[in-house]
Amino acid sequence: MQYYSLQHQAPNVSFKEAVLKGQAPDKGLYFPTELPKLPADFIKNLATISKEEVGYTVMRPYVGEDMTDQELKRIVAETVNFDFPLVKINDQIASLELFHGPTYAFKDVGARFMSRCLGHFHKNENKKTTILVATSGDTGGAVANGFLGVEGVEVIILYPSGKVSPIQELQLTTCGKNITALEIEGSFDDCQAIVKQAFMDQDLKEAYQLTSANSINVGRWLPQQLYYFYGLQQWQQQQPPVICVPSGNFGNICAGILAHISGLPVQHFIAACNVNDTVPVFMQTGNYQPKASTPTISNAMDVGNPSNFGRILEIFGGEAEKLKTRFSSVSITDDQTKATIKEVYGGTGYLLDPHGAVAYRALADYQQQNPSQKGFILETAHPVKFPDVIESLLDIQIPLPEGATALNSQDKVSVKLAADFDSVKNWLLGR
Ligand SMILES: *Cc1c(COP(=O)(O)O)cnc(C)c1O
């Protein structure tokens, strides 16, 4: 399999190069030259196939000759070594829980796969690779945990001091080993700006082999298809599901659409957004107008210019009319999100996190118009990651998931730095 740049101004590359580069030199996103079709038997017998075998079969064509069967099988097995249960909320809606991984968010899947690919590709190189990543919360934890102990790779995470939740901060700052947390006295935007500048700095380029672990990397994007198959394995209805995905940068839902194009039966996809509604507006008006992001309680989706939407359009040959036959997108306010968390918890006992609640609202609204269509949401994070929102809405203490209690007893280790490029650069050069 080869990958081309969506800007069409850079040479095609293999899977390995696409993972190592992240973004094409012309700043375009990489996209596979072919969209694989899975055998009809595979889809028919899906429910009887192990999740490791499903993962291997789906990823095999994308990886091409850059990995042996054995290597790919090992990497897939390590990536998906936790549960992906489809839990019934009511007769119409189920929840595909993607938060049973080590950092309680779906980003674990992409981060674990990509980290192991990088580790594999760097095996025979003696120069260490340094991943530099800025996080507003979930990405950093998933990347830190995914890369923990991976040889030949070190991770440096920049996070905004005081602006991530307590569990998120512990996940970033207690790994040790090859993971370092830089606590930046500024905002997420500051962290991101510093990382961007670092990638262009000549002195740093000489001292380090820098790579990003950005969500646009094909090594993170493509394995996100796998849990759509795991959801369908557990789907008991005759009719295929409507799948509703809480969306920010649109990588997650784009992977689902790819799975569908490869043969996975899905009735319809809904991209549920918070008030950052660039895509819902585009679907209404045909006008794509990126804007600055607005902060919300589902903050992992506060994205004003979703990078992966271009990939979704590409899947449909750039034709918005074709896209509309399979895909719609809506915007949900914080007030609706809060009301939904309350209503669903009160009515069913199911506790949604703010991101899952945005998706639940969007799917329930869709079913008002299409009452015969059942479906599921992707629950992208454990509610415990957002205690402020949940505990102020519902008078409850969220029970800690297994493993999180251990986190609480560990000591935070971070390097505090001012929010300017020079202080980070000096620290990097002075180590
Ligand atoms: C990152 C994230 C999202 C958004 O996923 P995209 O692939 O960027 O659309 C949704 N929910 C949670 C909890 C996240 O961490």
UniProtKB/TrEMBL annotation:
Catalytic activity as recorded in UniProt: O-phospho-L-homoserine + H2O = L-threonine + phosphate
E.C. code: 4.2.3.1
Family of this protein: Belongs to the threonine synthase family.
Pathway info: Amino-acid biosynthesis; L-threonine biosynthesis; L-threonine from L-aspartate: step 5/5
PROSITE patterns in the record: DEHYDRATASE_SER_THR
GO molecular function terms noted in the UniProt entry: pyridoxal phosphate binding; threonine synthase activity
Gene3D superfamilies xref list: 3.40.50.1100, Threonine synthase, N-terminal domain
GO biological process: threonine biosynthetic process
Coiled coil: none
This protein's UniProt keywords: Amino-acid biosynthesis, Lyase, Pyridoxal phosphate, Threonine biosynthesis
Cofactor: pyridoxal 5'-phosphate
Pfam family of the protein (one): Thr_synth_N
Superkingdom assignment: Bacteria
Annotated ranges, domain Tryptophan synthase beta chain-like PALP: 96-370
Protein name: Threonine synthase
NCBIfam families in alphabetical order: thrC
InterPro entries, sorted: Ser/Thr_deHydtase_PyrdxlP-BS, Thr_synth_N, Thr_synth_N_sf, Thr_synthase-like, Threonine_Synthase, TrpB-like_PALP, TrpB-like_PALP_sf
Domain Threonine synthase N-terminal: 2-79
Residues carrying N6-(pyridoxal phosphate)lysine: 107
